[in-house]
Amino acid sequence: MPGSADSADSVSSADPVDFTDQLRSTAPVPVPVPGPASAPEVPEVPPVRGFEGDDPLDRAVWRLRSRGCWDDAAALLEPHSVRHASAALRRAALLVERCMFTATGWAEAEDALRHAEALAGDDDERGGAACERGHLAYAATVLGVRDRADEARSALGRAAALLAPAAAGRPLLDFRRGLMAEHVADSPDAARAAYRRAHAGATAQGDALLLSFTWRHLAGLALRDGELTEARHGFAESLRIREELGFLIGTAPALAALADAAPEGDADRLRAEAARLFRLMGGVPTWLADHLSAAPAAT
């Protein structure tokens, strides 16, 4: 399940990290993670830079989004989204992400997405809207709300036809096609190829948040194949990036994922910290609850 999901210090003697203050500040809190012996065969992550640039609106939207306040973030964009296709698409993407993390708000996301589709004026905007529609349909499918797998495939295929290979939205599209291959088609080889394309594109574009997701899902496939060193490295990189960005809403899933590849003692501490942060974030993402209460499983 997507984070759905972002390195080298030992966690064996570390005390649990307190995230309470971080809920009121953008300063990241480091979480020690086990260091791997080798990296997966994908490009290295560049140093994490500030997210969303220097624009005050962008910074405000990011702070709210990173704490799971999607409604408030979308409200900031609403006045700009009335006539501007890019703002309408960003607002729709926030509400689609809320669906993925909370399994609620489907009607609002659909309305915002239809508005973004209506405003789209070029292939990049139409492709971006199709990518979001595909992801919304994917979320409804994997969360068990309604089987919309055919709609997801169609929308992502339409996005692939609209977005040029060098388009800014292409790495995200590749990642989402990887999600479909892994979690709907059960085709890990196709998923790995798509995640690698997304990882390379995100590296070239400096998209650190997307890299946190590609690292995590490549690591999940490695864990599925029994490659513990590679899995631990990918999960650790995903966690590192999310901590440095201050992506709080995605940190508990990153901790839980790393716990699945960690030695038993470290795994218990990582999973306990994930559960504590999950509670602090109000039980979001909702799909993490079963993972934290059960034995390690793929998410």
Walk me through the structure.
The protein is mainly alpha-helical and 299 residues long. The protein has 2 domains: 1-37 and 207-299, no CATH class; 82-205, no CATH class. The protein is globular and about 55 Å long. It has helices at residues 56-66, 70-81, 85-102, 106-119, 123-142, 149-162, 170-184, 188-205, 208-224, 228-245, 251-261, 264-280, 288-293. It has 13 helices and no strands.
Structural class: mainly alpha
Gap from first CA to last CA: 4 Å
Unreliable segments of 5+ consecutive residues: 1-50, 295-299
Q: How many β strands by DSSP?
A: 0
Q: What is the oligomer described by this structure? A: single chain
Radius of gyration based on Cα positions: 18 Å
The major beta sheet can be summarized as:
none
Q: Indicate the proportion of strand residues.
A: under 5%
Number of domains: 2
Helix-strand pattern, N to C? HHHHHHHHHHHHH
DSSP helix fraction = 55-70%
- The backbone outline, from C-alpha atoms, is globular
Number of helices: 13
